[in-house]
Amino acid sequence: MNSFLKLVLFSLLLLPFSFLSAQTPDFSFSLKITDNQGNQDSVIIGYGSNATILLDQNYGETDISSEPFDSLLEMRTGFAAQPSGFQSKTQITDWSCNSNFDYQIIALSIFTENFPVVLSWDEGQFESIENPCHKA
Asked: Which sign, positive or negative, has the C-alpha torsion 82, 61, 88, 35?
């Protein structure tokens, strides 16, 4: 078998797995933190139809709980009631407007030497006319 044909067959075998590797959440936003010295950090929070309360690598969630916090400012996210205690820069939950759950509790871990801090987000992302779920 020639090398071109082998490459095509190999690519066709991997194609189904490429769709499983990364998913786009149904909704997400960036939650930003700024300390009184102007240092900034952010996390991504959202929901997706295939997400769980566990670590979902297909939504870009990576456990960084074993890594030390940045010495100036860092914010991480995770579930408050999750016994595994993972921390991530991204947290996509399984909540949706059609779910029976009223809310999900997402914990924020913040480290800074320069209090006070200010949390901010793009309010426009919550004013979607098409989706009343996003109204704050």
From this structure: negative
Q: Which amino acid is at 55?
A: L
pLDDT tens digits along 15-66 = 444 444 578 888 889 999 999 999 999 999 988 888 887 788 899 999 998 8
Q: What is the C-alpha to C-alpha distance for residues 35 and 103, in angstroms, rounded to an integer? A: 28
> Is residue 76 within 8 Å of residue 88, measured between CB atoms?
yes
pLDDT at position 125 is: 82
For residues 75 and 90, give the distance between their C-alpha atoms in angstroms, rounded to a whole number: 10
Joined tokens for residue 109:
């871990």
